[in-house]
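Here is a typical protein record:
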Amino acid sequence: MVSLWKTTSLWIMNPTDAHQWQQLAPLALVFLVIDGLQKFIRENLFWFLGAGAGFAFLDWLGPRELLLALAAILLSFLAWAIIFHRRFRFRLEEDAIRVRRGLFQKRELKVRFARVQNIQLGRPFYFRPFGLVRFSLETPGASEKEVELPGIPAELAEIMRDRVTGWQGGEPEEDQSNEETVGSHGIELYRAGTGRLFLHGLSSNQIWVLAGLVGWAIGNFYDHLESYFREVAIMQWLSEFGGPAWMVISAMIMTGLIILMLLSGVFSIVRFHDFRMFDRGDRLVGIGGLLDQREQTVKRDKVTGLTLQQSALGRLLGCWYLIVRQTQSGDQELSDSQTRFLVPGLRRDDHRLTAQITSEWVRPASLNPISLHFRRIFWLRWLVFFVLVLVALAILLGREHWSLQMTAAGLGLWMIGIQLRWRHWGWQADGDRIWVRQGFLGQQLDVFDLALVQQVRVTRSPYQRRHDLANLQLMLPQGAVTIPFVPMDDAAELANRALYAAETAVTHRV
């Protein structure tokens, strides 16, 4: 049976002749249909279900009409996938990958090896028995994957991966593709066990995304849920409960949050199962995943910075994660986070990875704080704002109204927030690189080379000019990094060093 599967998947493609035009395996239709349906649902879910429209639509349709509509949608995606598959071709050239595709208008795309910054090999569970993988490439500044080849033999994908990563602008490295087997990806830098992955899920921000989706669903379908609860006599039980209603509501909310946290931990284990990070000389390799095992390769010379991140809950659990930064488009931060090279489940001792990724990026023992005037001016501004609000409420509602106490409590919390924000800001220039820390309840620590700075902005408000301070904004390939309320002399020195390092790097490249 296994031999028949492999024969079925390779009947079109010959990995030893990768320079000929190749076609995707027939099983790629499964991926195309699933991927198309996922995109359709993501793009139309809120429109379809907004304000309970989904339930109204389902009430209007009968079971037979609903099944016919679903069948029509599925057949439409299947027809699109078949046409796309038949018109899709690709081949490996000496210094590039060329792709031909298009439904009504055929287009041809050529991606040179030198432009590739990220390579992914995905092994969904339905591809593994057939020896197939999903191969994709990303180039700097692209808002989505430049090339995606779902359903090609693993052997061919590995040849393409090693050719792309081994390209140096001349002849490919002859023995690079065979120097390590599939089971030996290089020197192992880091491994995350199940416990660390579960903690990463608990501490990651995806729990709040899940909570937001649940809250949105409850808000839109409240009337339907209430009628359902009445049918199962839950509302009657709540009305007969002897304790206060707020206790029941609080217990339900806490139970829901605990369930969401557990689900977030489980999702993290499924996504990053047996995550390992390897060093292969000029590239980094990360492998992990249960249902869809992903192998992600990043060229070291395409790394534009590193980010150590820790959420508020992560500070309590002592859990961090590392993001390897690359050149990205303006809206790439809002795209699928699974395209980022992310190292989950780090402890503080694992920060040594920054030095192993780039030998000179050693985390400093301390950072320079920003000026106390940051805290002072924002305290003063918000104090004035809240006082005016309190005076207005006292005049309109009376001095004894509960809203005055709530506003005063809000003022205290806001002042504490400004204090936390000020304490988290910090920076340190270490040679030709700079470390910048920021955060509120959590924290984020960025490091990058000054030579990668593309633009520098130094801005000063009247208050800052009076106290000889400035805001320094550094534009990088991965986005902007700002250091507020630093001494003007330090801001000018950092700006000049960044511009000099960038100009010197361009001169050396020329």
Summary: The CA atoms of residues 46 and 54 lie 9 Å apart. The chain has a mean pLDDT of 80. The radius of gyration is 28 Å.
